[in-house]
């Protein structure tokens, strides 16, 4: 009679034993894999087994993903290798199939190498034809090739090489040991970073493809660079001379800049004022530019082209006797009754207000300054800007500080570096904003 405690112990023992058997079958015997649970099958057509056998490993990117379940001989000598691959492993349909050897004594396995973009992955029941697979060199062929290689080597030279290698590595045991240890450590790091390395290799594909696409441009840049450097080489003497004289030239430029430190602001200020005056007198300037070519042509016509090569060319001159027609004008000339000797070469001030000051309809000097048309009022004439209402005069203000010239576009007042003010106020016209506006306006009119 079994006691109740013993019965419970037996039941617990049988339960533990059953669970252990199930776990062992799932983990070691791999019964789910044998039954096809969590797996999918792919058939690979091979021209020969290449040393494969059932239970051979299947790898993808160096990782175990399945096994070879069976090999079937087809008509014509081809081999169908049925692969059982773990579900969840996406292998590109266009991947290359390679039969490799894990060691020198055999242990072949199948390895998938991705090549394309992997748009579609392998599925249960897919078939890969023989053209996408490659087999390793058979051991017999390898041994024959090695034997032929050693047979072709001259024995005397080979003995010399072996002797020299022995002498080279003699006493290098510790160094070779450290080298092998370092190589092993490097291999361990490479194994740990395998996924990163494979990702880097995959990422290099578009980069290299881009470089291939840029090949014509890169070659063109290289040719241009070659031409450029060739010109540099041919101009070596000139460049050396330029570099040698560059120092003194730079010193002269610096000295010139220092010399222009004072007069340059004044010059720019004067040019600014000149630009403002030119803006007002644009109509007169345009008229002058229109008449000047005709006047030059008339002057050149005095000497015909066919006479210019003569030893004594003759010019066409027209003399007209006109006594007091039109009559001379002395009104308005302060020094009309004075005559300076031609021998007097001393400086003399230019007259500031000398022109024929008679009525506009007077026949004397009808083209004189008094009949100059005002640019700002049609039908009015004056000898100077003041007569037209244009004020280009100095102000008596002396409140300038520093040596900086500025222009006030609201009042038309310009301060020169010496502290004086000039006022530009064309009557009936708006004052331009800046001196650049005068130049731009001059170019547009």
Structure description:
Helix 9 (263-280) packs across helix 11. The N and C termini lie far apart (131 Å). The strands form 2 sheets. An 8-stranded mixed beta sheet has the order 7-1-4-3-2-6-5-8, with no helix packed on it. Strands 9-12-11-10 form a 4-stranded antiparallel beta sheet, with helices on one face. The longest helix has 26 residues, at 4-29. The chain is built from 11 helices and 12 strands. Helix content is 43%, strand content 15%. By secondary structure, it is α+β, with helices and mostly antiparallel strands. Mean pLDDT is 78; it is low at 393-405, 425-433 and 438-445. The protein is elongated.
How do the helices and strands line up, and which of them pair or pack?
Layout: H1 4-29, H2 31-34, E1 39-46, E2 57-60, E3 63-73, E4 79-86, E5 96-103, E6 106-113, E7 127-128, E8 133-134, H3 139-152, H4 155-169, H5 173-192, H6 194-213, H7 215-234, H8 236-259, H9 263-280, H10 282-301, E9 392-395, E10 406-408, E11 413-415, E12 421-424, H11 435-444
Parallel strand pairs: 1-7, 2-6, 5-8
Antiparallel strand pairs: 1-4, 2-3, 3-4, 5-6, 9-12, 10-11, 11-12
Note the main attributes of this structure:
single chain, 445 residues, alpha+beta, eight-stranded mixed sheet, four-stranded antiparallel sheet, 43% helix, 15% strand, disordered C terminus
Tell me briefly what this model is:
The chain is an alpha+beta fold and 445 residues long. Helix content is 43%, strand content 15%. The strands form two sheets. An eight-stranded mixed beta sheet has the order 7-1-4-3-2-6-5-8, with no helix packed on it. Strands 9-12-11-10 form a four-stranded antiparallel beta sheet, covered by helices on one side.
């Amino acid at each position: 009679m079994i006691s109740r405690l013993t019965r419970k112990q037996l039941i617990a023992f049988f339960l533990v034993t059953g669970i252990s058997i199930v776990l062992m079958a799932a983990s070691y015997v791999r019964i789910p894999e044998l039954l096809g649970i969590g797996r999918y099958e792919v058939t690979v057509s091979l021209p020969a087994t290449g040393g494969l056998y059932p239970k051979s490993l299947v790898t993808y990117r160096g990782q175990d993903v399945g096994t070879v379940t069976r090999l079937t001989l087809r008509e014509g000598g081809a081999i169908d290798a049925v692969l059982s691959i773990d579900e969840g492993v996406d292998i590109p349909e266009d991947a290359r199939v390679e039969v490799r050897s894990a060691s020198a004594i055999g242990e072949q396995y199948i390895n998938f190498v991705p090549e394309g973009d992997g748009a579609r992955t392998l599925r249960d029941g897919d078939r890969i034809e023989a053209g996408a697979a490659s087999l390793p060199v058979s051991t017999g062929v390898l041994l024959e090739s090695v034997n032929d290689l050693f047979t072709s080597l001259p024995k005397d030279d080979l003995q010399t090489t072996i002797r020299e290698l022995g002498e080279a590595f003699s006493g290098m045991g510790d160094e070779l040991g450290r080298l092998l240890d370092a190589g092993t450590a490097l291999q361990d790091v490479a194994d740990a970073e395998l996924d990163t390395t494979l990702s880097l290799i995959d990422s290099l594909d578009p980069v290299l493809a881009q470089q291939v696409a840029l090949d014509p441009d890169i070659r063109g840049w290289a040719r241009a660079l070659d031409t450029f450097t060739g010109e540099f080489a041919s101009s070596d003497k000139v460049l050396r001379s330029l570099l040698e004289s560059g120092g003194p030239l730079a010193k002269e430029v610096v000295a010139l800049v220092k010399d222009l430190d004072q007069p340059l602001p004044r010059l720019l200020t004067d040019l600014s004022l000149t630009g403002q005056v030119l803006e007002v007198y644009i109509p007169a300037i345009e008229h002058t530019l229109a008449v000047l070519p005709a006047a030059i042509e008339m002057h050149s016509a005095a000497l015909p082209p066919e006479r210019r090569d003569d030893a004594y060319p003759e010019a066409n001159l027209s003399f007209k006797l006109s006594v007091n027609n039109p009559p001379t004008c002395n009104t308005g000339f302060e020094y009309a009754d004075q005559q300076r000797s031609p021998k007097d070469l001393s400086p003399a001030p230019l007259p500031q207000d000398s022109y024929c000051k008679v009525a506009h309809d007077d026949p004397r000097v009808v083209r004189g300054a008094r009949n100059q048309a005002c640019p700002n009022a049609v039908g009015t004439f004056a000898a100077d800007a003041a007569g037209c209402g244009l004020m280009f005069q100095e102000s008596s203000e002396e409140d300038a500080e520093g040596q900086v010239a500025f222009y006030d576009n609201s009042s038309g007042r310009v301060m020169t570096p010496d502290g004086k003010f000039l006022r530009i106020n064309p009557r009936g016209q708006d004052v331009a904003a800046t001196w650049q506006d005068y130049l731009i306006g001059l170019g547009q009119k």
